[in-house]
Design goal:
The protein is α/β, with parallel strands linked by helices. The chain folds into two domains: about 130 residues, 3-Layer(aba) Sandwich (Rossmann fold); about 170 residues, Response regulator (Rossmann fold, 3-Layer(aba) Sandwich), CATH 3.40.50. It is built from eleven helices and 14 strands. Helix 4 links the parallel strand 3 and strand 4.
Length: about 375
């Protein structure tokens, strides 16, 4: 910018004054020592920014399933929101519970991911193999029970949500017949069916539960067919341990009632929706990531979180549900949170009439992890070999 003319004249006048003063000093025989040049401050280069922690997720279903995988992906997004540019996350969806899963996990390692989450039971053996070959990578396996030095397990107490849904179902059924669409007959799913039935029987002892298995986690056509079969058998309230919204939508088409599972499914069929038993994976994913970032992550163990830790809840309870039942659910939720209420507490009797849990005995996690039987009130047989 060109100086203003007045400023320029002032600058010039000042310069002449300095020159005159310098000449006067020289004339008097005084020599002015030149000032030592100021040492230049060393330029401090900014500290290099740490590379983000690369985190990968393997999903059994599509992120848009509205249920299980959708809930896990919300947990992934919670990590990004919490840690920002300290992390870089990625995911692979629709990874089958088969040999191909091992290839996917190896590929995720080759991409530089050092914290890897596998989000379904069937990934257990492939993850163990890959973890053994890559000891410097941290692996987290959802719903599994085998661990290694660099592989740990995590799970949510979905049976707590199932029980609360059962309380609502027991109050809302008119036929006293409930229907459950089961995915794969492992203890996790069988435990949920039993818990749902116990919740229903707590308000309606006449309840009977029928089950149709689809042997897949996510297959909307099969889930639809199973739901319709249950309705044809007299079930007027449906529950599921599958990943899509097909069961709820089938109930709506038949003027029946149903629940959302793993995520809030209200929007898929609000007229049929009674409530959604949801999983919030965010708290655990944030904790695991923080441990990895701070160098505090350790393998070889496992956690099982529920209502107490904010991982399980039942939400969006319909206005159709009576106020006293809503209050009962609130009381149960509070009891699960503070540890004063236990779902699996004796006496409990199996489908065959034999006692499986004695009076006042509270089932421990080992017992719960080995549930391979139906309780009294659940009809049919548990598929062989499970």
């Amino acid at each position: 910018m060109t100086p203003h003319p007045t400023k320029r004249r002032l600058l010039q006048g000042g310069a002449w004054t300095v020159l005159a003063a310098t000449a006067a000093l020289v004339g008097c025989g005084k020599k002015e020592e030149p000032a030592a040049p100021a040492a230049a401050a060393p330029a401090s280069a900014p500290a290099p920014k740490p590379a983000p922690l690369k985190i990968a997720f393997a999903y059994v279903g599509p992120v848009g399933d509205g249920g299980w995988t959708f809930a896990h992906d919300n947990g992934r997004k919670a990590i990004e929101k919490e840690f920002g540019d300290k992390v870089a996350t990625t995911f692979v969806e629709k990874v089958p519970e088969a040999a191909d899963a091992e290839r996917v996990f190896r590929d995720l390692v080759s991409q530089g991911n050092t914290l890897i989450f596998g989000t379904t039971f069937g990934y257990m053996e492939p993850m163990l193999k890959v973890a053994a070959d890559h000891p410097n990578v941290k692996f987290e396996h959802a719903t599994g029970y085998k661990q290694a030095a660099n592989l740990r397990t995590y799970d949510s107490r979905t049976y707590e949500g199932a029980y609360m849904a059962g309380v609502i179902a027991g109050a809302m059924t008119k036929s006293n017949t409930l229907g459950v669409v089961g995915s794969i007959p492992i203890p996790e799913v069988i435990r949920n069916i039993n818990s749902f039935t116990m919740g229903a029987q707590s308000v309606n002892p006449k309840i009977k539960t029928r089950v149709v298995w689809v042997n897949e986690w996510f297959n909307p056509p099969k889930e639809t067919e199973a739901a319709q079969s249950l309705i044809n058998q007299g079930a007027d309230v449906l529950f599921q341990n599958t990943d899509s919204s097909a069961v709820l939508q089938t109930a709506a088409k038949n003027n029946k009632l149903a629940f959302g599972w793993d995520s809030d499914m209200t929007a898929y069929a609000p007229e049929a929706h009674l409530a959604s038993a949801i999983i919030n994976w965010g708290p655990y994913y944030i904790q695991a990531t923080r441990e990895a970032l701070e160098g505090k992550w350790t393998g070889g163990g496992g956690v099982w979180w529920g209502v107490k830790e904010g991982a399980i809840d039942i939400v969006s309870i319909s206005d159709k549900v009576p106020a006293d039942i809503k209050a009962k659910v609130d009381t149960i939720r509070a009891g699960l949170k503070d540890g004063s209420f236990h779902i699996w507490k004796g006496p409990l009797v199996g489908q065959d009439g034999k006692e499986v849990l004695a009076k006042d005995v509270v089932a421990d996690d080992k017992f719960l992890g080995g549930v391979k039987f139906y309780l009294k009130g659940v009809e049919g047989k548990v598929p062989a070999g499970n």
